[in-house]
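Please, structure for the following, as tokens.
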Amino acid sequence: GIPVPSWEVKDARFFPIEKVEGILKYRGDKEIFLKAMEKLNLL
């Protein structure tokens, strides 16, 4: 998928994970998102 803009990843911690996962599943960006979350130590 297309990389998630950095501001979306940064703000993702403020959203319910179900909502974030739903958005990213729809976009097909979940793998990129999870890698970004790992880097931010949010998992």
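Helices lie at 6-12, 17-27, 30-39. The CA atoms of residues 1 and 39 lie 18 Å apart.
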